[in-house]
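Ticket reopened. Same input as before:
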Amino acid sequence: MTETPQETWLIVGATSSMARALARELAERGAAVIVCGRDMVDLDATAADCRLRGAPFAEAMRFDARDPESFPALIDAMAAREGTLNAAVFVGSMPPQEEIDGAPDMLDGVVADSFTGPARLLHMLAPLLEERQGGTIVGVGSVAGDRGRVGNYVYGSAKAGFATYMSGLRNRLTRSGAHAVTVKPGFVDTAMTWGLDGMFLVAPPEAVAESILTAVAKKKNVLYTPFFWRYIMMIIRAVPEPIFKKMSI
Amino acid sequence: MTWKTAEYAGWGRFFTARGELARPERISALSRLATETPAPAIGACRSYADACLNAGGRAITTARLNRLLGFDAETGILTAEAGVPLGDIVTAFGAKGWLPTILPGTGFATVGGAIAMDVHGKNHHQKGSFGQHVVELTLHLPDGPRTITPEDPLFAATVGGMGQTGPIGTVKLQMQPVRGDVMMVTEQRMPNLDSFLDHLDRSEATYTVGWIDATAKGDALGRGILEEGETGPGLVPPAKRGKRVPMDAPSFALSGPIVRNFNAAYYRRIPERGRTVVKPLEDFFFPLDKIHDWNRLYGKRGFHQFQCVVPIAAREVLRDMLNRVSASGLASPLAVLKRMGPGNAGMMSFPTEGYTLAIDFPARDEAPDMIRTLIGLVQDVGGRVYLAKDAFATAEQMDAMYPDRAAWAEIVNDLDPEHAYETDLTRRLALRTQT
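Engineering reply: fixed in the latest deploy. New output:
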């Protein structure tokens, strides 16, 4: 139990395997968790699992990135908790780029899921952290946000927007003693990547969850996980645009 | 994507399969798969040979259906998803004074796998098999989920049924209260086979297990160490977990002379007068789990485990078997002798009253013939081999070893007329053949 007992984590998008792994790790360390998302049956199972593995409090609540009316109840639930408040946001959607190309109205949904929805929620939550002068917000972006590529630039641009939001939020929260960590996972072994071609060095979600909590403890600003993705993306960002525009990676 | 083409292997790494795997993360996803594309479920692939393989076909892995769903402290009943590793339950509940009633030798085995093989543990002589403590389970069948209890005829076909009645989603398990979260273990040298068996017959300990030196000969034939355990309260540092084996060991690592010397030293490590030590629960129940991929120690060719149970009256056959094994120089340090009680919960369950002997063999060229000989000896005395480990039995031997097999096949074939749940094991041993 390295965490203080009076610690609550709001885990947004908790049906994803990365979020589930983080919720379990936190529960085993004795933190309280509120897991939220859309599939309540699945979230109830995750909340029960957290309680049985050591969380003093675990509850499932509804969150829909495209329905801001679901947000205030989450903020109220967090405000009702004593002690340090934290959040980890895992939401996003990545429909195949070709589908979006054929139906441009899908773009709004991707941006709501990956950027504006979670950002609006965090904007409502931030004052609570400032008031209590502590806590951490973890925002999970993607290496896809580091540079627009033909294969997924709608998703990538939404994640880029979210990364910029996280950077500003960090700048804001640091004034009150709170913190924000931007996480950029590479390939993680999730339902999304299961059986996809071209995957390499795929990280288990448990390893990602552990590295996130290490980054939180060390107050890191931007975490690439696994770590080597920082260098892969450095190279990808360094390719001059006249060359990059002709590549398909 | 739903399906991924993968190479996977039994724990012995000798049998492998290439096929499509699905890995649902929610029970609702399992339900959908069960309806749309029925396939056998696999757990942690801790079966040694081909029970967890479906080469060229499909399988559904329960690796991500691994949540604990509820616990009633009044009744001690735990609800869990089928993919929960048993070690997770020990870690989460040991300190609260509860344990699964039955625990096999590895905590990586899943709840679903423990049911499919009706596994046994170091307390089988008193508490029976895993399936006897399952109070309810849900099968995910093509026409929807079906929840069954021990009274349902399908229950005895499911427990020990090697997945042939369809994927299991959730399970209710009867846990048992324990006195504390440490194990007091008394270890004694057993100088030869007769003394070993006599001690096993007399032991009144809650948990017993014997390590046997399968390389010892002559007067020392069948020598080993008897461990008797009782849970108790106490303070020991939590079990340290998770060393990995970085590479496949070279083949000479388990050559005859090295194993003989290792075993002799391992035997003498226990003082002549015996000793009592206090261990974390995990270290007692799952001694090998501390080394994650210990199967790699057998090198890239892998290994076989032979496990049988022979009737009490046939104890002399053990001497015959050990004589052959020690003369061959093929055995590894891993060999276990235990007394079993009569308890089991399924038509195809392995546990039955008698002595059970398990021996690991590195997969050398001579190993199959040695194991076939041992299987023949077992069959002659009315014993049986454990299908979670078997690699070399034949279809013709099955009805003698498993007298309920034909009746089981009828129930299973009625439920699964398309044979969608067959695995490499059920095909190799023609387990679902009806005459």
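The first helix of chain B runs from residue 27 to 36. Residues 182-398 of chain B form a domain with the Vanillyl-alcohol Oxidase; Chain A, domain 3 fold (CATH 3.40.462.10). Please confirm and we'll close it.
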